[in-house]
Amino acid sequence: MENKDEYYMKMALAEAREALDADEVPVGAVIVLNDRIIARGHNLTETLRDVTAHAEMIAITAASSALGAKYLKGCTLYVTLEPCVMCAGAIAHAQLDRLVYGADDPKKGYTLLRAAVLPSKMNVEKGILQSECAQILIDFFKEKR
Amino acid sequence: MENKDEYYMKMALAEAREALDADEVPVGAVIVLNDRIIARGHNLTETLRDVTAHAEMIAITAASSALGAKYLKGCTLYVTLEPCVMCAGAIAHAQLDRLVYGADDPKKGYTLLRAAVLPSKMNVEKGILQSECAQILIDFFKEKR
Questions:
Q1: What is the model's pLDDT at position B47?
Q2: Distance (Å, rounded) from C-alpha B73 to C-alpha A109?
Q3: What is the radius of gyration, based on Cα positions, of chain B?
Q4: Which H or E run includes A25?
Q5: What is residue A2's DSSP assignment?
């Protein structure tokens, strides 16, 4: 009998095949809670012309919607490819319990993370209206605590 | 006369104020192309119950939609707070030319990046159906090239 991880990874692979059928880079994901799939997603960056439409992002948004909850505690995300930094960031924000992935991504996988996430050629400016930008947050959290 | 960066950061701050009015953590963003704002966004994680609904993510998706293009070449993203790792990943994917941010985020800013993006307590499993998960990608790219 195949184990549960393989079972759910096959479901994620089925999602990857959906992406393939749509001529998208074939990556698929499912999110499981208490032995039930609560969300599915596959890469739709071309179809939606949206670089944020990775399988994991779509599945996380769908799972939150299914649960009516922002955090996905107790959930496991199965994804066919090692998440990129964006998706790993979202996975961390969502507070999933467990991540299971299939293939390594030696080019863009989050485990390769170097000193900077942004490309070195990107022009980055900081500190524009710094105090105002910080103050609106300080005021917000002051009121909350 | 104020400079352009300050002008657009004020527009981003206006977005942050929209978030504030909705009782969201007040972060705002605008995306500018050829001296025109093509997209705006503010944090909506509570309203949408979606951890991915950061100001930058919303603005990037909106800008792609406005341009009908996946990549945001030539664009500048103004955001009131240093992007987190998820948003920095999205900014990198979107191939924006320039990032301008206001306040530093000493807790979650992408510039602090440590060895791992995921929390150390998160259980991570890899290699489930690894070859199948890799093969679907290899086949896809083989056909493309």
A1: 94
A2: 23
A3: 18
A4: none
A5: -
Q: What pTM was computed for the model?
A: 0.83
Instruction: Choose among A13, A87, A118: nearest Cβ to B129.
Output: A13
Residue B66: CB atoms within 10 Å: 15
Q: Is A145 exposed, middle or buried (0-12, 13-18, 19+ CB in 10 A)?
A: exposed
Nearest CA to B93 out of A57, A22, A119, A106 is that of A119
Give, as one character, the DSSP assignment of residue B24: S
Which of A51, A111, A122 has the CB atom closest to B99's CB atom? A122
Q: Is the pLDDT of residue A117 over 80?
A: no
SS (H, E, C) chain A: CCCHHHHHHHHHHHHHHHHHHCCCCCCEEEEEECCEEEEEEECCCCCCCCCCCCHHHHHHHHHHHHHCCCCCCCCEEEEEECCEHHHHHHHHHHCCCEEEEEECCCCCEHHHCCCCCCCCCCEEEECCCHHHHHHHHHHHHHHHC
- Strands B123-126 and A98-103, sheet pairing: parallel
Lowest mean pLDDT among A27-41, A59-73, A124-138, B69-83: A124-138
Q: What is the pLDDT of residue B46?
A: 92
Phi-psi region of A129 (alpha: psi -120 to 50; beta: other; left: phi over 0): left
Task: Give this complex's ipTM.
Answer: 0.80
Angle B44-B47-B49 (CA atoms, 0-180°, nearest 5)? 90
Q: State the smallest CA–CA distance between residue A32 and chain B in angstroms.
A: 14
